[in-house]
């Protein structure tokens, strides 16, 4: 079954080592509607699949925006940015290539991963140590059934927990990521199921169209069936 943390007192980054490491690594950002962080079977199956193929995996359990943090809706993004910086700064010591640290986000974690790949975490908090001075760029972005927009087709739970029950038009626009695609976003892999009744597949399609319009390399996989939260095993 799934394991979920509703209140995250402090961010956590778990490192799963590949049996035969290739030097590549992946930061996995789980979902949970910005209300919880789900790190159960789906995430474990991802870790097993990637580590079996030579890719180290880092799983982030981030703080949640509704838990009273001073950073508010930026708290999860601060944690994602910090995690990417820590991976980059320690990569060589772990036998990893700092230029091959991809990011994979699922559901609401897809929204967070996309914001990170856009560079939105830069300057979002006071640096804690030398790691935060590193340029933690994202060379490759993967998104599974992601939350993208906060406008039409939004996942209501994610919008409420991120922006509050009555967000204004400015907040909705600022966090509707399909509106903010630039050339800074890396090549992106997208996958969703058309029968997803949790996060409208239109989220994925909106981002796909925005990436295409900005000439960002993008690969899209649409499955007729699969629902929400499908795994690799």
Please describe what this structure looks like:
It is built from 6 helices and 9 strands; from the N terminus they run ββββαβαβαβααβαβ. It has 233 residues and is α/β, with parallel strands linked by helices. It has a 7-stranded mixed beta sheet, sandwiched between helices. A two-stranded antiparallel ribbon has the order 1-4. β6, α3 and β7 form a beta-alpha-beta unit. α2 crosses α3. The chain is globular and about 45 Å long.
What's the short story on this structure?
The mean pLDDT is 92. By secondary structure, the chain is α/β, with parallel strands linked by helices. It contains 6 helices and 9 strands.
Short key terms for the protein model shown above:
233 residues; alpha/beta; seven-stranded mixed sheet; two-stranded antiparallel sheet; 6 helices; 18% strand
Secondary structure layout:
Blueprint (H helix, E strand, L loop, with lengths): L3 E2 L6 E5 L8 E5 L7 E2 L2 H11 L4 E6 L13 H16 L10 E6 L1 H10 L23 E4 L11 H8 L5 H6 L13 E6 L8 H12 L4 E6 L10
Parallel strand pairs: 3-5, 3-6, 6-7, 7-8, 8-9
Antiparallel strand pairs: 1-4, 2-5
Helix pairs in contact: 2-3
Mean pLDDT, all residues: 92
- The quaternary state of the protein chains shown equals single chain
The computed structural class is: alpha/beta
- Give the helix level as a range of percent: 25-40%
- Number of DSSP helical runs: 6
* Beta-strand share of residues: 15-25%
Spell the H/E element sequence.
Answer: EEEEHEHEHEHHEHE
């Amino acid at each position: 079954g799934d394991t979920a943390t509703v209140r995250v007192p402090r961010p956590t980054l778990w490192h799963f080592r590949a049996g035969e490491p290739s030097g590549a690594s992946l930061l996995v950002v789980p979902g949970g509607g910005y209300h919880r962080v789900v790190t159960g079977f789906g995430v474990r199956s991802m870790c097993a699949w990637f580590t079996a193929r030579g890719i180290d995996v880092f799983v982030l359990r981030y703080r949640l925006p509704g838990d009273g943090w001073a950073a508010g809706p930026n708290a999860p993004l601060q944690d994602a940015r910090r995690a990417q910086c820590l991976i980059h700064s320690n990569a060589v010591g772990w036998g990893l290539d700092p230029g091959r640290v991809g990011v994979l986000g699922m559901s609401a974690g897809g929204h967070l991963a996309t914001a990170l790949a856009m560079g939105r975490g830069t300057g979002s908090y006071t640096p804690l140590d030398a790691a935060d001075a590193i340029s933690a760029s994202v060379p490759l972005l993967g998104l599974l059934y992601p939350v993208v927009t906060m406008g039409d087709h939004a996942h209501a739970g994610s919008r409420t927990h991120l922006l509050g029950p009555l967000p204004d038009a400015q907040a909705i626009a600022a966090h509707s990521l399909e509106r903010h695609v630039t050339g800074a976003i890396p090549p992106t892999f997208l996958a969703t199921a058309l029968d997803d009744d949790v996060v409208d597949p239109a989220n994925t399609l909106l981002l796909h169209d925005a990436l295409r319009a900005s000439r960002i390399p993008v690969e899209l996989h649409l499955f007729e069936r699969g629902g929400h939260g499908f795994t690799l095993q």
